[in-house]
């Protein structure tokens, strides 16, 4: 009489691989899973409950087990079955950075350092991950203060309302938009921003 494991060998190896990369430091993939704090839920500690969930939730031969949240654990709530292409694309969406030997997703480093998530991604893409990691390390030690470029220090007047602001940053905060978007509007004299059409002028 065959066992559940024998009847579902591919699922058994998917379960086995999941546990290896989250629990075995000698596993090559451990650094991307277990070392990052990703674990397997208590319910899936044994194969049988995992197999039952898989068969009831879209498993087919050739599909990969994928976590919806790449920073989350392996659990029924966070897992699904996808094609290999979908799985690879999902992994690529998450940028991981390593500071002082600790690898975390970009979003987590943004939370810890105070540096905007978008800034870290742009730095990594344009200046390299080493630069982004250096900025994180510096921010963790000294704190993060956004640089104030060019006209962001200058006073500006919002023509429609007549409101005067001491800096672009103050104006951007008041109108709930980014300083970069507002600076672009002033520099290009077109008044176009994601928040609508605004006209500005600098005050000497």
Largest sheet: 3 strands, antiparallel
Q: Tell me the span between the first and last alpha carbons.
A: 88 Å
List low-confidence stretches.
Answer: 148-152, 189-197
N-to-C series of helices and strands: HHHEEHEEHHHEEHHEEE
Q: Strands of the largest sheet, in order across it?
A: 6-5-9
Beta-strand content bin = 15-25%
Structure write-up:
The protein is an alpha+beta fold. The chain contains 9 helices and 9 strands. The chain has helices at residues 4-7, 9-23, 47-56, 84-92, 106-113, 117-126, 129-142, 168-174, 179-188, and strands at residues 64-67, 79-82, 96-99, 102-105, 155-158, 163-165, 192-193, 196-197, 200-203. The chain has a 3-stranded antiparallel β-sheet. It has a two-stranded antiparallel ribbon with strand order 1-2. Strand 3 and strand 4 (102-105) form a beta hairpin. Helix 2 (9-23) packs across helix 3, helix 5 runs parallel beside helix 7 (129-142) and helix 6 (117-126) runs antiparallel to helix 7 (129-142). The protein starts with a helix and ends with a strand.
């Amino acid at each position: 009489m065959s066992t559940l494991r024998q009847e579902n060998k591919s699922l058994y190896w998917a379960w086995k691989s999941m546990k290896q990369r989250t629990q075995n430091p000698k596993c090559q993939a451990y650094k991307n899973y277990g070392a990052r704090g990703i674990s397997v839920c208590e319910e899936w500690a044994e194969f049988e409950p995992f197999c039952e969930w898989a068969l009831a939730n879209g498993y087919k031969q050739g599909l990969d087990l994928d976590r919806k949240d790449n920073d989350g654990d392996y659990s029924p709530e966070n897992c699904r079955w996808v094609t290999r292409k979908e799985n690879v694309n999902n992994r690529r969406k998450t940028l991981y950075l390593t500071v002082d030997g600790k690898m975390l997703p970009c979003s987590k480093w943004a939370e810890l350092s105070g540096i905007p998530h978008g800034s870290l991604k742009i730095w990594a893409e344009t200046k390299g991950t080493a630069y982004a990691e250096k900025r994180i390390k510096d921010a963790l030690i000294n704190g993060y203060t956004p640089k104030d470029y060019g006209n962001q220090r200058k006073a500006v007047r919002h023509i429609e309302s007549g409101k005067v602001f001491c800096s672009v940053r103050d104006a951007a905060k008041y109108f709930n938009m980014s300083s970069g978007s507002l600076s672009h509007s002033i520099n290009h004299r077109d008044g176009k921003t994601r928040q609508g059409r605004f006209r500005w002028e600098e005050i000497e």
